[in-house]
Amino acid sequence: MKRLVMAAVTAGCMTWAEAQDTNVIRLPEPDKTRGTAVMQALADRVSVRECSSEELSLNDMSDVIWAANGINRPEEGRRTAPSALNKQDIDIYVFTAEGVYLYLPQEHALQQVAEGDHREALAGPPSPARAQDFVKDFPVILLFVSDLSRFGMEGERVKLMAAMDAGIVSENVSLFCASVGLCTVPRASMDEPAVRRLLKLGEQQIPLLNNPVGYPKK
Description:
- The chain has one domain: NADH Oxidase (3-Layer(aba) Sandwich), CATH 3.40.109.10.
- About 30% of the residues lie in helices and about 20% in strands.
- It is built from six helices and nine strands.
- The strands form two sheets. A seven-stranded antiparallel sheet has the order 1-6-5-4-7-9-8, sandwiched between helices. It has a two-stranded antiparallel ribbon with strand order 2-3.
- Strand 5 and strand 6 (about 110-115) form a beta hairpin.
- Helix 3 crosses helix 5 and helix 4 (about 60-70) crosses helix 5 (about 155-180).
- Residues about 10-20 have low confidence and may be disordered.
């Protein structure tokens, strides 16, 4: 938390006192001019399971989260990712070595929901043969949780819509990373019971996918 807060202070986004009082990190404005052309990003998109140990900068964190599901039409509150019936059911949780944060799209900010390093919960269910521990080497992991209650309806079709929405947000991350030279891989593996306990998720909140994000390994 302290490293993120100090980065925010350095960027002029907030004061230390504000951070201590609110536990909210206000992100820099996303740079909407960076990256390659869409067709080039599609050509370059690839799943990468190794990365550098370097921490993600606050500017890169701001840009990748906004690309994932930020607000691109403020007057209407619409997002970079479409959602079924425009219910905007996907919440993004950011896992780092310092803590876990909920993305607040209206404020383009991160609110701390847990302290400490909980990236292991996204490596998958505990197992002697677990092969997903590579995710713990990524400095940031974005978890996509669908809140089914926002659809105002029930049934299997709702779960399909939620899965579709999570997939779109995940692809936004993949294309952004391909466009600017970051590493990522979309994943469904996680220790769901541990994630639910950590984030205090309700029955209608479903953790669906996650994207670890980092810099290329040198």
